[in-house]
Amino acid sequence: MLKKELRAFFVSPVAYVVVALVMVLNGFAFRAALSILESAPSEGSIVTWTFQPHWFWLSYFFVFPLLTMRSFAEERRLGTFETLFTAPVRAWQVVFGKYIAAMIIYALLWLPSLFNFKIAHWVSAGQVELPAGSLGGSYIILMAMGMFNLAMGIFASSLTRNQIVAAIFSFTLSLSHFLLGVFVMLIGRKITDSIVDVSTYFASVEHIRVFTSGLIDTRPLVYYASLTFLFLALTHQVVEFRRWKP
């Protein structure tokens, strides 16, 4: 199942559109971060200026619908959904196989951005500060957030046979979660510190701020892992329902 999903993705033109899109956006974010550091002294590092600005978030949520919209929607559109279950596989194996394939592709998308940092550090002979803790924390939280958003995307794809509808629903879920976190943070700051503490569980923008500063907080990791399990469990239930529906 995993090999089938990876093969299907890379023979599709969508794969190359996603890779090109992510590389262009990462390159833009990295160059913008360099420009900020070149213009004036800054307390932030190249890592924080790459992953924290608003333009990073404007592009980030387009990745997940593109990676997951075809997962189950295309199987249903092509009529291969029922055929898939004639093989000796269980529903959870199908869901897990599609999910792991999406995670592998998502992780590969970030490799070029890692090379950007390494090359800049090497070319500048160490003048571009590259804090190891900040860099490691950034990629840990990107993987955790990706894990959660991909699970939501696969869930959205399991609900429809139309890939465009699946992509729109996935994008809406991801963006709604992000905006909910921002909203809770804004409200929390006007009320009490205890609400501010609670809001950190929801706010993706706060999570990435903490991790890009080099701090590893296990609470967001548990939060994203729990929601990932929830959406995969919901997807499993939807697939089981579709499988046995007359």
Low-confidence runs: none
The chain-level structural class is mainly alpha
- Mean of residue pLDDT? 80
How would you spell out the order of helices and strands?
A: HHHHHHHHHHHHHH
Helix content: over 70%
Shape annotation? globular
Radius of gyration over C-alpha positions, nearest whole angstrom: 19 Å
Number of helices: 14
Percent of residues in beta strands: under 5%
Number of strand elements? 0
Distance between the termini: 25 Å
> How many strands, which pairing sense, and closed or not: the largest β-sheet?
none
Short recap of the structure:
The protein has 246 residues and is mainly alpha-helical. It contains 14 helices and no strands.
